[in-house]
Amino acid sequence: MATGETQIDTGSLRVTRWEIEPGGAIPLHRHEHEYVVVPLVDATLHVVEADGSEAAVELRVGRSYARPAGARHTVANRGSAPLAFVEIERLS
Amino acid sequence: MATGETQIDTGSLRVTRWEIEPGGAIPLHRHEHEYVVVPLVDATLHVVEADGSEAAVELRVGRSYARPAGARHTVANRGSAPLAFVEIERLS
After folding, report:
1. Total of domains in chain B
2. What is the DSSP letter of A72?
3. Domain ranges, residue B11
4. Chain A nearest-CA residue for B7
5. DSSP string covering B29-81
6. ipTM score assigned to the predicted complex
7. Residue A70: exposed, middle, or buried by beta-carbon count in 10 A (0-12, 13-18, 19+)?
């Protein structure tokens, strides 16, 4: 199971805290906006693109990464501990 | 002492990881852009405004907050442990 809590929406920035339980995933979604991910744990995030290709992303606490708008994927936690990160979207 | 590491600059978003040692501070600065802070530790951040007024901000891991452009302040760590957070600025 995955849960997303919207912490902030200023109209120009939106911040969501995501938590994914072991075995859980954020279902297929498309990123309409450029975004930054700030990991809150050390973990491996499995990203499954809409075309079926996969990548394992190594998350490290506080080591951020950015992605452009347009990504369309599922993100899964195949580990044994809960996985958490904060997503910041640039809305406009 | 305080150190800031620019992790990302996409031209529209800039991400900086800040670490402030006990007794250290980020010197007086003005925020030219709207920004979000994602705390990486539980701690108290002392914010000293340019007019001398002070506020104690309780940081909790992953509990983000946003501020508009225009703030002008010093931020200090008066605790006994290093303090770390990620700042995301909306550049344009």
Report:
1. 1
2. E
3. 2-90
4. A64
5. EE--S-EEEEESS-EEEEEEETTS-EEEEEE-TT--EEE-TT-EEEEE--SSS
6. 0.94
7. exposed
Helix (H, G, I), strand (E, B) or coil at A86: strand
Q: What is the pLDDT of residues B45-81, one digit of tens each?
A: 999 998 999 999 999 999 999 999 999 999 999 999 9
Joined tokens for residue B42: 């539980």
Summarize pLDDT for A27-43 with one digit per residue, the tens: 999 999 999 999 999 99
CB B25 within 8 Å of CB B47:
no
| pLDDT of res. B90 | 98
CB contact residues (below 8 A), chain B span 17-76, against chain A: 17, 34, 36, 38, 40, 61-66
Contact B11, B76 (CB under 8 A): no
CATH number (domain holding residue A47): 2.60.120.10
